[in-house]
Write a structure and sequence with these properties.
It contains 10 helices and 13 strands. The protein folds into 2 domains: 214 residues, 3-Layer(aba) Sandwich (Rossmann fold), CATH 3.40.50.300; 61 residues, Alpha-Beta Plaits (2-Layer Sandwich), CATH 3.30.70. A hairpin with a 2-residue loop joins strand 1 and strand 2. It binds adenosine-5'-triphosphate. The site of adenosine-5'-triphosphate has 11 residues, from strand 2 and helix 1. Pfam families: ABC_tran. One of its GO terms (molecular function) is ATP hydrolysis activity.
C-alpha cells in the first residue's frame, strides 16, 4: 500500500513548548488511524501541520507526494477541527452549497445532507442548529470536496448516541472506498472499534503504534473485578502476589494483573470476603493508562 501521508523527523516548537518531537509517520491509503494521547500531547498540532495550517520547526511533511500547503493537497483534503464555526445568515443547504463551490468535484448536496442527517434542518439557519447538529454540519463541510484524506479532530464531542452511530458508519463507508482517515479522540472505545491503527502520543513523542489488538495485547493486562464484603479491608489485598494495580470504587474492586489465573487462586486460598467475581481482558482504556503511566516513569 502506498503512503499518502509521510512525516520525517518533524519537530514543532512554540515559545517555551516543544509540542512535537522528532515525529516520523507513514500513513497508508485507505486506512483509519487514531492519534491518541492525553491533553497537550501534540495531536492537534500534528493535525494542523498535516493540514498546512502550521509549519514544522524542523522535518518534512508530504501529503500525496507534495507539500501540505499546495493547492493539489488542499483540494484532496477535508478537515473537521475542534472549533466549530458557522456562517451567519446562511441556511444549512446554502452553507453546504458554498463549500461545494470551492471544489472541482464536490459530492452531491443530497449526499451531504444524508451523511450529516440534516435533511430536515436543511432550510434552517446554520447558527440556529444545536451543538451536535453543528458538528454534523461540520462533517458534511469536511466531506464537501469528496476528499482523499479526511482529518477528524475530536469529531464526536457533543453528538448524541444516534448521531455518533451515523457518523462512524459514514466514516467507515468512506474508508471502504479507499479514503484515508486520521482522527483524534478521547473516547477510546470509539478508537478501538473504528481504527485500523492506533498511534499513542505523549509529550510530543510516539510511545505506541499498532492495531487496537496489538496495543492491548502488548500491555498484557487482564482484570479481576469483584464486590468486597464488609469484612474485606484494602490492606487485605496489599502484598498479594500478581497485583499490578488496585482500584476501589465504593465496594467494587478492580485488580489489574498479568497472571489472572494465579491471582484468582491466591484470592481463593486467602478465603477473602469477595463475591460477583469477573475476569476480563483489559480494554484499550487500560492499555492507554498503562502506557501513559509507564512513559511518565
Ligand atoms: N499556538 C500555540 N502557542 C503555544 N503553545 C501551543 C500552541 N498550540 C499548542 N501549544 C502547546 O503545545 C502542546 C501540544 O498542544 P496540542 O493542542 O497539540 O495538544 P493535544 O494533544 O491536541 O491536546 P488536547 O487533547 O487537549 O486537544 C501543549 O503544551 C500546548 O499548550
Amino acid at each position: 500500500m502506498p503512503s499518502v501521508i509521510t512525516m520525517e523527523h518533524v519537530d514543532k516548537e512554540y515559545k517555551g513548548t516543544h509540542a512535537v518531537k522528532d515525529l516520523s509517520l507513514h500513513i497508508e491509503e485507505g486506512t483509519v488511524t487514531a492519534l491518541l494521547g492525553p491533553n497537550g500531547a501534540g495531536k492537534t498540532t500534528t493535525v494542523s501541520m498535516l493540514l498546512g495550517l502550521q509549519k514544522p520547526t524542523r522535518g518534512q511533511i508530504r501529503i500525496l507526494g507534495g507539500s501540505p500547503d499546495q493547492p493539489e493537497a488542499r483540494q484532496s483534503v477535508g478537515a473537521m477541527l475542534q472549533d466549530i464555526s458557522v456562517i451567519d445568515r446562511l441556511t444549512v443547504r446554502e452553507t453546504m452549497d458554498l463549500f461545494r463551490s470551492y471544489y472541482v468535484n464536490p459530492l452531491p448536496l443530497a449526499h451531504l445532507l444524508a451523511i450529516s442527517g440534516l435533511e430536515k434542518e436543511q432550510n434552517k439557519f446554520a447558527t440556529s442548529l444545536s451543538g451536535g447538529q453543528k458538528r454534523r454540519l461540520d462533517f458534511a463541510l469536511a466531506m464537501a470536496g469528496d476528499p482523499k484524506i479526511l482529518y477528524l479532530d475530536e469529531p464526536t464531542v457533543g453528538m448524541d448516541v444516534g448521531s455518533r452511530q451515523l457518523f462512524w458508519e459514514s466514516v467507515r463507508a468512506m474508508a471502504g472506498k479507499g479514503r484515508t482517515i486520521i482522527l483524534t479522540t478521547h473516547y477510546l472505545d470509539e478508537a478501538d472499534s473504528i481504527a485500523d491503527r492506533i498511534i499513542v502520543i505523549n509529550q510530543g513523542k510516539v510511545i505506541a503504534d499498532g492495531t487496537p489488538a496489538e496495543i492491548k495485547a502488548a500491555q498484557g493486562h487482564k482484570m479481576i473485578t469483584f464486590t468486597a464484603g464488609e469484612q474485606l479491608r484494602p490492606d487485605s489485598l496489599e502484598g498479594l502476589p500478581g497485583i499490578a494495580d488496585t482500584v476501589w470504587s465504593g465496594r467494587k474492586v478492580k485488580l489489574t494483573s498479568t497472571d489472572t489465573d494465579q491471582l484468582i487462586r491466591t484470592l481463593i486460598q486467602h478465603n477473602l470476603d469477595i463475591r460477583d467475581i469477573e475476569i476480563s481482558a483489559g480494554g484499550l482504556e487500560d492499555a492507554f493508562q498503562t502506557l501513559i503511566q509507564g512513559d511518565a516513569k
